[in-house]
Amino acid sequence: ADRLVALLYDENGESDAAGPLASLPWFRQWLDVLLNFAQPAQWVIGLGAFGYDWPTGREASTVSFADAMARATRSGEGRIKTEAPYFSPHFSYAEGGINHSLWFLDAVTLGNQKRLAEKHKVGGFALNRLGLEDPGVWKVLGTAATSTFDLAKLDLPLFPAHAGTGDFLAVVLEQGSGRRAIREDESGIWSAEYLS
Question: Model-level pTM?
Answer without folding.
Answer: 0.88
